[in-house]
Task: inverse folding
């Protein structure tokens, strides 16, 4: 499984019954549990991915669907939903929607789905040769860098006071660890070592 996969999950309904739940994989924690955003009914016939992520055991996954370029709509329909013209709004395949109920138009053309993605992300795409350069700590010669480095140090000292804050910190630490390990390989190849979590206070 990889980030972005769509999942059918065996869900406990809390009343002694189970049913298929729907989710998108956002990560895997250090214990092998899956971090997912559940797709839930928002209102009427509209479904949307939750803003908050949940953790589930890997063995609860019943089926995996991997979206690929040129087949997003096809894969989503196999997953059980049709993407619509409105971002993060989906229609469940098979639902009979009454004529008097207004819902966004489902997308049928792959180019519409991909064009939206391209237009949203085009300005943020970094060439591979730049993206794969070893990370370099910036010297503290500007307010932005000083504030960023101080935020890293503050995060290291942060003690969460609620379960939500704890989940946020664990998610951030797991994400940080993932990309630090990837960069460690580039640093090793260049004969360098970087302390990511303790940026220098030196000017």
Result:
């Amino acid at each position: 499984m990889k980030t972005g996969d769509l999942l059918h999950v065996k869900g406990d309904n809390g009343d002694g019954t189970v049913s298929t739940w729907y989710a998108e994989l956002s990560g895997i924690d250090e214990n092998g549990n899956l971090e997912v955003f559940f797709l839930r009914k928002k209102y009427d016939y509209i479904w949307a991915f939750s803003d908050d992520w949940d953790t589930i055991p890997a063995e609860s996954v019943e089926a995996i669907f991997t979206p690929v370029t040129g087949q997003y709509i096809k894969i989503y329909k196999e997953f059980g939903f049709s993407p619509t013209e409105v971002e993060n709004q989906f229609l469940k395949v098979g639902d009979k929607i009454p004529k008097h109920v207004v819902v966004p138009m489902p997308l049928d053309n792959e180019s519409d789905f991909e064009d939206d993605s391209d237009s949203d992300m085009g300005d943020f795409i970094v060439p591979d040769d730049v993206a794969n350069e070893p990370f370099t700590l910036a010297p503290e010669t500007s307010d932005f860098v000083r504030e960023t480095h101080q935020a890293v140090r503050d995060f290291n000292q942060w003690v969460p006071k609620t379960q939500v804050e704890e989940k946020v910190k664990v998610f951030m630490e797991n994400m940080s660890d993932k990309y630090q390990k990837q960069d460690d390989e580039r640093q090793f190849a260049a004969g360098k070592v970087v302390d990511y979590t303790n940026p220098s206070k030196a000017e």
